[in-house]
User: Fold this.
Amino acid sequence: MKKLSLIIGIGFILLALLPLLFPYSQFVLTIAVAKGFAALGVMLLLRAGLISLGNAMFYAIGAYATAFMATRLGIHDMALLIIFSVVVSAFFGFVFGLFLVRYRAIFFAMLNLAISMVIFSLVSKLYAITGGTDGIGVPVPTVFGVELGKAASDTLLYYVALVLVLVIGFLVHRYLQSPLGHALSAVHSNEVRLEYLGVSARATLLFAYTLSAALAGIGGAIGAMSIGHVLPEFAFWTESGHLVLTAVLGGIAGIAGPFLGSIFLEILHTVAVGYAAEAWNMIVGIALLVVIFFLPRGLYGLVENVAGQKDHAKEPQL
Assistant:
């Protein structure tokens, strides 16, 4: 366990140093971390045996909340933008969750997909409010009232995102180790027995679903400020599929898994497009097949193997 934590710690330090050595990697890594938060939310639902094909809508809601607050309310503080986006995404997650947690298996997946496409259609068509397919520009955020240049703001945003990975990752880790987190896994293993014990499966899932939406909202806020523009495509169903793939590819056994998967996919996509623009889809597909066939526990499983971690218990690790 100590060796596993050491390897992950070294990897985190490398993430902090990489933009200093290769400045052009900062944007890619920021987007990877942003999507990693959304994939972490997907991972929570996967632990309950539920696949959400619509979690990108909460990523989009967080991004649009950031854009609205900056352009309509005139609030540009980076911390406030992130907090506001999390609250709005969590609110919609709670409202949608009241209905969605009644369903399981394919019904849950398809209903999430249906709602996400309704959100996509609304933000695409309501030109007067959302800017339609043109989207909304997001101005450079301030920090405690101090205006920074775009370059300085992007650098600060990246390191704020890394700090959030540590803080939020620790909190989610503690949640999954708590009785409520164990109840979440029990929904997948034996929901009937969980109800017999007096624990409401719907309440357990509603909390997890709301938390999943809040995590996606964090990613949406970071992505919106990094890109500087918000588009309806953020909520499209392919983005939701991408988040599920990211969570599975990274591995759901540990908190680091979704972030590993997101960083791997973003870097692979960037390199493939840069060096083989005509065949980047094939390169990404081959790489994914290799991971799926030879790393059944995802990239996190590879890290476990390197660390000599043989305990494959369901309890999540850092």
